[in-house]
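One thing: could you explain this record?
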Amino acid sequence: MKTTNTAKIQFNEVNVSSLKAVVNMCQNKSAVNSNAKDKSLYLINNLGLPLSVASFENRVIGYAFVTINNEEEPEINSYWEKEFYSIEAEQNLKFHAETIFHSTFKDAEKRSAKIQNAADKLSNWLSFCN
């Protein structure tokens, strides 16, 4: 397996141009290979709110996202293309995502509701665009 030097991986906020790659990665990690409606439903239930992307040679290779867990608390997770995953790269991506998270959702009391609202709006918009 080829390893990637994490110094060459760039970490950026998710934007409209990187969102398509994030959506594709999310849909590709599913076992759903059927119709667009099933893929759209999978996306709504699993995308969360993307915060940060990892890129290597101008290609999105991973992303970090926030979801609300069963305890109603925000939780940052990540997904990677297998050949680019390393613990160091994941830690760097999550650190970048946490920085974005804390600057975007400052009000801890209303944080979970705001995250869920933003994730729902994003999923609805993406479903409409599909």
